Amino acid sequence: MITHAVIFAPIGQASRSDQIVQRLSNAIITGLLEANEQLPNEADLAKMMGVSHITIREALNTLRANNLIHTVRGRNGGSFVCEQAWELSHSLNPFKTLSTDYLSDLGEMHCAIISHSARLASRRMTNADITRLRDFVAVLAASTTPEARTQADMRCLLAIAACSQSARLANQELILQSEWSSLVAMLFRSENIHREIVDLYISLIDTLESHNEIESVNIAKKLIDTFTFYLIENKLKHNVNNNQ
Amino acid sequence: MLQTTSLRTLSTKIDKIINSTIESTVLLAREIEASLAEIKDVKLEHLLEPSVRKTIQDHIKQTLNSNGYCAGAGFASHIESSVSNKEFWLLEWWYKKADGVKQVNLDLDQATQQRLDFRTFEWFKQAPSVDNAFIHGPYVDYICNTSYTLTCAVPVHFQDQFLGVAAIDLLVSRVEDELLPYAANDKVILTNKERRIIFSTHPRFRVGDLLDASVTSIVFENDYFNLYM
């Protein structure tokens, strides 16, 4: 799944095992990495994420200590996502640890990337590109689980970024998705949010198809702003529940 | 079509880059086919054996060495599971580092390849329906090199069935490096057949834009690209 390519993608320059723990535990808690799923082995993780074996080992130790993964030794061994990860997730839930200004800021950055991608894409998309994007949105509309919806949504946004023909924008989108996807997976549990997002995508494609630059930018901004709104709302709700 | 001397040398150079890339890709595909054919009682599973993989890797590295334009080369194959074999993924991809010499292997395990699913990549998807070489792009390759890329792909067959794709990556920036000396005095724009600009010496028409052909006239074309002025 493309969500995995993003979760295990290279870490940025200031790489530390903390960042890895954050990314992987978010993915586990929000279900993007499923119960009993096997992680790539240490050597592969190190290579994919662009960090040393030692950093990976440290991160995996922390995840083990937090009961998010368990390791089986031997020939068919490896690290696997724990079954009960969901229940244990309360204290580690990203919506508990992340502040609203953090979520808001992440949303603004994402908005900048996608709205500008839409601006370029409105000029640069061919009919074949439009058809492909419509197909991706159709997959999103038909997805029923939060994980499938997150994966489909990621594909849509990456496609829009790639249609800008800007390598830098596409690359920034990919990097941003490594944080974004785990958070959004929580939102896609709601049927209403799912429907609202799909409708926004459909409006966006219409404006892209008619090469309407201004409207494409507006709807792209509205799409990401909608996500950001619900992320913040979710964070506030989470804290209210905790304090009861 | 009016062609000045400079336009003629430019179009010759364009043909040279494309033809050499296609030739290298076709050669890679044929070499892989030949290597498989040499194996006694060859079966699909042989593709995963270390010795066979090494042979394929050698062909790929040889391709990288002999073609000066390409940035990466490889072979991708996916076989559905069936009665006689289980599903497997093979992506052998090598690319040149920034210095243009050192070769690096993009090494991914089966599980990762399954997640990446290169069957969704355009250059792989279209290959079975196109008999020979085709060029996909330019496009943003955010999976491998995060650069604006052209990929030349040729289908590889095994016992008359589609087996996989041999491919070569060409960076758009490299094409520009090669063509700039030949287009010093002309305002020219090179596009693919969808009118997407690959090379341009006119600042108003950027690489990646779709060219509005009504404001230009075509001065040269081959099977893959159009040159406008």
Automatic annotation (TrEMBL), chain A:
It comes from the Bacteria. Residues 14-84 form the HTH gntR-type domain. InterPro entries: GntR_C, TF_FadR/GntR_C, Tscrpt_reg_HTH_GntR, WH-like_DNA-bd_sf, WH_DNA-bd_sf. It holds the Pfam family FCD. CDD domains: WHTH_GntR (cd07377). PROSITE patterns: HTH_GNTR. SUPFAM superfamilies: GntR ligand-binding domain-like, Winged helix' DNA-binding domain. The keyword Transcription applies. Keywords: DNA-binding, Transcription, Transcription regulation. This is GntR family lactate-responsive regulator. It comes from Buttiauxella ferragutiae ATCC 51602.
